[in-house]
């Protein structure tokens, strides 16, 4: 039985991913993935709805993270899922010296607007190794919606586990069903790190891969703190990282960037939507 895999992934390219999250992860020797909206970084595009975002990360900061072996991935150029937009994003990341031969992609807004089969072809042509989305479609059944409401009302661990079990990626003898349809556990403002840790522990020795989707990581005294559900407290994030380090040192889990998992564990081409 192989170790449970954990990946920390940050969407958008927000400045606090470098200023807060990266600092904490370095403290515990952890590496993750940042999915960059390139138009946000070079200020050719902006999103006013990101109320907890103070601004974009800089190219120089991204280079420092890459030097530390953080994965730099695409999140589109204008935060949309579209062929030409993805091409622009990849070109910019190449010009900035942030990607190598292969690259990952995270679906903006967790919604694939184009035909999934056609977009998968486009991903393969552009050497995109994986596509990370949001929650599993099973999370949107009536039963799962009721469980999610119960969790939000009660914060009972059982409801969190039942809801997020669909978002774990099963690994069977170094095989994943579809690298272009990776689900993730979304971390929101009200989530408690102990709840997330207990969920991870409940999946140890079950051949699972858990990708955590995060956005802003901020201190409580910051002006934008808590203005939307996509902000998580820096102290909560540090508690999570501390527990991940303990579990990693105990040999229970492996914490790795998404592309590293794909390349190390699944080096051969996996069946995709083209098959």
Any overview of this molecule?
The protein is an alpha/beta fold and 275 residues long. The protein has one domain (4-265): TIM Barrel, CATH 3.20.20.370. Helix content is 37%, strand content 17%. The protein has ten helices and eleven strands. It has helices spanning 15-27, 38-41, 59-67, 83-95, 116-125, 142-154, 157-164, 193-201, 234-249, 258-265, and strands at residues 4-12, 33-36, 71-74, 103-106, 128-132, 169-170, 185-186, 208-214, 216-218, 231-233, 253-255. Strands 1, 2, 3, 6, 7, 8 and 11 form a seven-stranded mixed sheet that branches. Helix 1 runs parallel beside helix 9, helix 6 runs antiparallel to helix 7 and helix 8 runs parallel beside helix 9. It starts with a strand and ends in a 10-residue tail after the last helix. Residues 269-275 have low confidence and may be disordered.
Question: How is the secondary structure organized here?
Answer:
Elements: E1 4-12, H1 15-27, E2 33-36, H2 38-41, H3 59-67, E3 71-74, H4 83-95, E4 103-106, H5 116-125, E5 128-132, H6 142-154, H7 157-164, E6 169-170, E7 185-186, H8 193-201, E8 208-214, E9 216-218, E10 231-233, H9 234-249, E11 253-255, H10 258-265
Helix pairs in contact: 1-9, 6-7, 8-9
């Amino acid at each position: 039985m192989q170790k449970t895999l954990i990946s920390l992934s940050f969407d958008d390219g927000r400045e606090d991913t470098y200023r807060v999250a990266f600092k904490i992860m370095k403290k515990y020797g952890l590496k993750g993935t940042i999915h960059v909206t390139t138009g946000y970084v070079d200020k050719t595009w902006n999103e006013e709805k990101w109320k907890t975002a103070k601004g974009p990360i800089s190219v120089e900061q991204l280079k420092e993270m890459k030097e530390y072996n953080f994965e730099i991935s695409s999140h589109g150029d204008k935060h949309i899922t579209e062929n030409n937009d993805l091409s622009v994003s990849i070109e910019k990341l190449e010009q900035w010296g942030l990607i190598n031969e292969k690259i990952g992609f995270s679906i903006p807004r967790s919604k694939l607007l184009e035909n999934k089969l056609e977009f998968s072809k486009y991903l393969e042509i552009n050497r995109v190794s994986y596509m990370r989305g949001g929650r599993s479609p099973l999370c949107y059944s009536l039963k799962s919606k009721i469980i999610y409401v119960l969790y939000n009302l009660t914060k009972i661990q059982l409801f969190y586990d039942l809801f997020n079990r669909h978002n774990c990626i099963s690994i069977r003898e170094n095989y994943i069903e579809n690298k272009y349809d990776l689900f993730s556990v979304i971390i929101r403002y009200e989530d408690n790190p102990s709840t997330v840790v207990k969920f991870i522990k409940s999946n140890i020795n079950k051949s699972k891969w858990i990708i955590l989707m995060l956005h802003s990581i901020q201190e409580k005294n910051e002006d934008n703190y808590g203005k939307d559900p996509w902000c998580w407290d820096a102290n909560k994030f540090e508690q999570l990282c501390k527990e991940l380090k303990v579990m990693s040192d105990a040999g229970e889990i492996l914490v790795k960037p998404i592309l590293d998992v794909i390349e190390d564990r699944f080096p051969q081409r996996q069946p995709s939507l083209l098959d």
